[in-house]
Amino acid sequence: MNTQQEDELRAKIDRTHSVLLIESDPRLQRFWETALTDGGFHVVIAATSNDALQQAAQQAPHVVFLGTGLDGSKAVRVLEALRQISPGLSVLAPANPKQVNEELDAMESHGALAKASPLKVDQIKIAVSDALNFDRVQRENRRVDEREERPVQFEQIVGTSPQTGALRRSIAEAIRADPATVLIIGETGTGKALVARAIHDNSSRKEKPFVVVECTSVPATLLESELFGYEAGAFTDAKAPKKGLLEVAEGGTIFLDEIGDLEMPVQAKLLRVLEEKRVRRLGGTRDYTAKVRFLAATNKSLETLVREGRFRQDLYFRLNVLRIPVSPLRERKEDMDCLARYFVDQFSRAFHKQIHGLSFAAQQQLSAYDWPGNVRELRNIIERAVILEQGELISPRHLTLGPAGLITEDAIRLPEGGVALEEAERTLVAQALERTSGNQTAAAKLLHITRFALRTRMKRFGLS
Predict the structure, then answer these.
(1) Residue 311 in 3-state DSSP?
(2) Statement to judge: residues 290 and 189 lie in one domain
(3) Is 305 in the same domain as 183?
(4) Prior bond of 87 cis (ω within 30°)
(5) Which of 242-246, 341-345, 408-412, 426-430 has the lowest mean pLDDT?
(6) Which bin fits 251, alpha (ψ -120 to 50), beta or left (φ > 0)?
(7) Which helix (DSSP H) or strand (DSSP E) does residue 360 occupy?
């Protein structure tokens, strides 16, 4: 065999699955190493039982091939020790070691060592290959079992109530059911986006993109181009081709937030993607495969929307493969203290405060409230309280509950002559950007809208 052939052979060897050859006879070492290496196996050689244990500790072999050096009780002791190092180890050995030596002597005397046909090397190779395949299957089964038994970590799914326990189990089920579509339902502020994020972050897609699509308050034409992308010349402002979010999320997860607000024209196109896994850019002529997982959330009853003719029934069926309900906070008051402490710790670190919890009176005040804004409202109230509090415990005077923090009918008065709503909205957006020195995330928070919705309005109003 020349150098090029040796290099090609080494390139074919699967080094992720090794064969430990235990053989004290140098002749047989060379013979078996050549035969097994020629079969594409990675061979590790040990001449003694001590060598075998040392090599096993370093290499973690998948198959042991016993030569002529070990037999009887000595072989049993070595194999038991090897199996402690590498559980499930497969063991192979020549049927008659004495005959192996005799046949090898005969072959050497006739100069026919390279053929090795009397030793039935091909059968040995098949046996080694079968043992490696069995080992591979066993290891994969163990990995699957470990994944199923390992508790999934949901750091932001906080609470001890039965509803929260059921939610965690539903999330774990959704993770295992990849790529099935998941529909997350619940009131505004219950944490539907956190559920979607937990599914993605604990799945095999966690290293791939998690792309959020805001379906609410966005015109159908704009949402369609964002979702599917477009080719140059598809419409007036399409100067160059642009990838859609479905392409951006390649291999990852698409989260369709508030899908109940999706307009009918986009519903039809989305249905095609879910059914055929095919996507076409606006103005395009060819399809590409959408290799993503779909998660959707809504605070509306899609069943009601279907009956009213505002949501496609076939799309509803496609989305409602796995259904995860998220309970409102008023129905799981047991979670109140856990959530409040969680947010206090979170914002204390963020604002460099030394606040260790809530006073008893503050806890009582929170427990008595009905929480129409759910967990999102609690989070905002705790954030404000942490900013204002100067002591070590949150006191009731810093908890602004109820409509005090909301815009009421008396807060904004409509002039007798009316007002241009578009201009009023532009003014509010401009003020929010000015107050936050152009920080879009902070401005969106002031206006209680998403950053995507803010940028849409900035573009519409010509604000930079």
Answers:
(1) coil
(2) yes
(3) yes
(4) no
(5) 408-412
(6) left
(7) helix 360-368
What one-character DSSP code corresponds to residue 268? H
Note whether 318 and 274 are within 8 A (CB): yes
pLDDT given at position 463: 85
Instruction: Answer yes or no: are the C-beta atoms of 432 and 446 closer than 8 Å.
Output: yes
Residues 117 and 56 in one domain: yes
Q: Strand, coil or helix: what is 358? A: strand
Q: Do 390 and 316 have their domain in common?
A: no
User: Are residues 440 and 364 both part of a single domain?
Assistant: no
Give the pair of three-digit tokens for residue 322.
């796995």
46-102 pLDDT, tens digit per residue, is 887 777 777 777 766 777 777 766 665 666 777 777 766 666 666 766 655 555 555
pLDDT digits (tens, 9 = 90+) for 291-312: 899 999 999 999 999 999 999 9
Quick one: 254 and 294 in the same domain?
yes
Residues 6+ apart with CB under 8 A from 310: 264
Residues 137-178 have pLDDT tens digits of 555 555 544 444 445 556 778 888 899 989 999 999 999 988
Nearest CA to 278 out of 286, 268, 265, 287 is that of: 287
CB-based contact 368:399 (threshold 8 Å)? no
Task: Give first-to-last CA distance, the chain, whole Å.
Answer: 70
Calpha distance 11→2 (Å, rounded): 14
Indicate the burial class of 174 (C-beta count within 10 angstroms; 0-12, 13-18, 19 or more). buried
Do residues 162 and 331 make contact, with C-beta atoms less than 8 angstroms apart? no
Domain identity same for 169 and 310: yes
Whether 56 and 101 have beta carbons less than 8 Å apart is answered as: no
The C-alpha atoms of residue 213 and residue 453 are separated, in whole angstroms, by 11
Cα 99 to Cα 422: distance, rounded to the nearest angstrom? 95
Residue-wise over 450-461: b if at least 16 C-beta within 10 A, else e?
bebbbebbbeee
Residue 352 pLDDT more than 60? Answer: yes
Number of structural domains (the chain) is: 4
What interhelical angle do 72-85 and 49-59 show, nearest 10?
20
- Give one word for 181, left, alpha or beta, with left for phi > 0 and alpha for psi -120 to 50: beta
| Structural domain boundaries, residue 318 | 162-327
- Asked if the structure places residue 336 within a domain, the reply is yes
Same domain? For 362 and 389 the reply is yes
Burial of 8 (C-beta count, 10 Å sphere; 0-12/13-18/19+) = exposed
- pLDDT mean over 26-47: 78
Residue 413 lies in a domain: no
Tell me how far apart the alpha carbons of residues 323 and 351 are, in angstroms, rounded to a whole number. 37
DSSP 256: E
